[in-house]
Amino acid sequence: MSFCVDIDCFKWVLMTVSSSHMSSTVSTSRGIFSPPRLGAYDESSDARASGSIGTPELESGDSEGIELLSVFWNQDYGCFAAGTSSGFRIYNTEPFKETFRRDLKGGGFKIVEMLFRCNILALVGGEGNSQYPPNKVNIWDDHQSRCIGEFSFRSDVRAVKLRRDRIVVVLEHKIYVYSLLDLKLLHQIETLANPRGLCCLSHHSSTSVLACPGLQRGQVRIEHFGLNIIKLINAHDSHIACLTLTLDGLLLATASTRGTLIRIFNTLDGTRLQEVRRGLDSADIYSIALSPNVQWLAVSSDRGTVHIFGLRVRVVGEDSSSHFSPQSPAFLTQNSSSSIDALIPPSTGANPGSSLSFMRGVLPKYFSSEWSFAQFHLPEYTQFSAAFGSQNTIGIVGMDGSFYRCSFDPKNGGEMVQHEYVRFLKTDSRPG
Fold first, then answer.
1. How far apart are CA 202 and CA 226, in angstroms?
2. Of 189, 202, 199, 273, whose CA–CA distance to 235 is shortest?
3. Cβ–Cβ < 8 Å for 248, 204
4. Is the dihedral of CA 222, 49, 14, 75 positive or negative?
5. Residue in 327, 347, 276, 404 with CA at minimum distance from that of residue 9
6. How far is Cα 235 from Cα 313, in angstroms, rounded to an integer?
7. Could you count the other beta carbons within 10 Å of the beta carbon of residue 138?
8. 292, 388 in Cβ contact below 8 A?
9. pTM of the entire structure?
10. Element (H, E) at 72
11. Which helix (H) or strand (E) holds 103?
12. pLDDT tens sequence across 372-431
């Protein structure tokens, strides 16, 4: 394998490969999937799964004339995948480095979804891709340099989400959930029109949670698969524009198409725990990120600012001075938002509020809203996606091919400090 490896994910892949030798596989005896029962799905279904579509032609391209089609963070936010007009590239963020690339003659990819840091990716072609049309999801094993599974649909794929036991495919009006081990269809979910492909998953092994738009405007549907619970949360009056879950799936953050308020909910009972305000004017929210220790929330929008908010939900026993890594076993086992003391003001990092908050209920709601604690300014109207790194740092990836790494002061807030700026499509640094 050529790019960065997540040890737990690597062990998972080895176990899956070993188990697949017990029966024939989708493509060859070296594949990781047991064969799906072709034609076993309901004929009225939009989707079908099939075997390998063969190996694409590879080429050794350069950066000249390459167009960026998409960027996607992996599940621990330590890497991101860039879909380009000629293939895809993988970048590590701390330290920043291009770790892997594939240049294909057939065209580019609008979706490149990583499975943590292992060799399995989900690829969906962009417009004009002669080999990978936008209505097909290809499961790519880069260890074998080929596609080992394919899902075909009657309409374009809007998003794909992966976890170690699931493949989730998002269409405009429906979501399909498959087993990653054998490609069997497990669930079908109807949604309101979802052109953004909004959907997110939990990534703890102990929880299996999915969040997506419901069937009504402003509604979010929560699926707790392990508990067999469905929760509908009326999050906003306007359509949902962005949503995200904590790693354990027990907290949800949402924004609407108005883009002024971000709300945090308990996914088990639907309780609204907190509301913060990005601004007074409407905005298109590009990303929402929750820090692994559930202390901070980051929001990026077309207004050219990344805002950081302090959360007023607290993990029981949390040491506010500690910094947790999303890969840390101690974090995964000891720091879960399943134990929430809601609405507890933290000792540091409080968001500023209005001095007129004593007149709450009389003045408009925004007078008592919580405003951002720290900010970082970017070019307006360029799409940026933000994610938390280590030691109070933020990684920001832009659709203009730029990457920023900055930090915020957890006590005093204010303007963030820029530490790194890279034009990653133009860099001469290639994987060694």
1. 11
2. 273
3. yes
4. negative
5. 327
6. 18
7. 23
8. yes
9. 0.77
10. strand 68-73
11. strand 96-103
12. 889 999 988 899 999 999 889 999 999 999 999 999 999 988 999 999 999 998 755 555
**Structural domain boundaries of the chain?**
65-157
Distance CA 407, CA 391 (A): 8
Tally DSSP H helices, then E strands, for the chain.
2, 32
Tokens of 403: 């990457």
65-157 placed in CATH 2.160.10: no
DSSP string, 204-236: -TT--EEEEE-SSTTEEEEEETTTTEEEEEE--
Q: Per the structure block, which two tokens stand in for 259?
A: 């883009």
Write the pLDDT tens digit of every residue in 69-93. 999 999 999 999 999 988 899 999 9
66: its two tokens: 């390459």
Give me the pLDDT at residue 313, please: 74
Q: How far apart are CA 104 and CA 66, in angstroms?
A: 12
Measured between alpha carbons, how far is residue 323 from residues 291, 320, 395 in Å? 10, 8, 16
Contact predicate 341/294, CB 8 Å:
no
How many residues make up the chain in this entry? 432
Instruction: Name the residue type at position 90.
Output: I
Enumerate residue ranges in the chain where pLDDT < 70: 1-64, 314-369, 427-432
- Please name which of 150, 145, 151 lies closest in space to residue 55, comparing C-alpha atoms: 145
What residue spans of 278-364 are helical by DSSP H?
Answer: 329-334
pLDDT value of residue 37: 30
What does the alpha-carbon distance between residue 195 and residue 170 come to, in Å, rounded to a whole number? 9
Place of tokens 């002024």: 260
| Torsional sign, CA 121, 126, 131, 137 | positive
Distance CA 256, CA 235 (A): 8
Q: How far apart are CA 397 and CA 89, in angstroms?
A: 14
User: What span, in angstroms and rounded, lies between the C-alpha atoms of 61 and 267?
Assistant: 45
Q: HSE (CB half, 13 Å, CA atoms) of 95? A: 2
Identify residue 150 by its one-letter amino acid code: E
Which residue carries 């794929």 as its tokens? 157
